[in-house]
From TrEMBL:
It comes from the Bacteria. Residues 19-102, 115-162 form the Pyruvate/ketoisovalerate oxidoreductase catalytic domain. Keywords: Oxidoreductase. This is 2-oxoacid:acceptor oxidoreductase family protein. InterPro entries: IorB_Oxidoreductase, Pyrv/ketoisovalerate_OxRed_cat, Pyrv_flavodox_OxRed_cen. Signal peptide: none annotated. It holds the Pfam family POR.
Amino acid sequence: MVTEKTANRAVNVVIAGLGGQGVVKASDILADAAFRQGLDVKKSELHGMSQRGGSVSSDVRFGPKVDSPMISPGQADFLVVVAADQVDVNRPALKAGGRLISPALLAGAPGKLPAKSVNVALLGLLSRQLDIPVEHWEAAIRANLAEKHHRLNLEAFQLGRQMA
């Protein structure tokens, strides 16, 4: 099912943070969920000076037809930032009227969200803005994470959806 939101144009999502926070894994899950929706998907990654602790960003574009994986500055429909201190650094990626999704939106979440699941909880927030069925998201989470991490991350995803 492709709805009006995604039927006519590519959707541009930048996911950013620091190495080791699951930025690339989050982009893999998003790309997989969009692909399961039957959309054309392109993805690219940019790693900073070090993979652990350096800046990392990933562009994910999906829609009926996507030619390039790269998102030009100021063209992201959504900017998902896993590390709060990376919001200002990555804000130029967001277009006017685009949506910023950051850990601040998870403040007040019931219980303690493990740091290793913040990326998936943020995808839960993002999922409320996209026309990709929950089943595709959940299947993508299972396909991209080891089985021992399924329960925790599916719960984090649902928490993000509830917080949206």
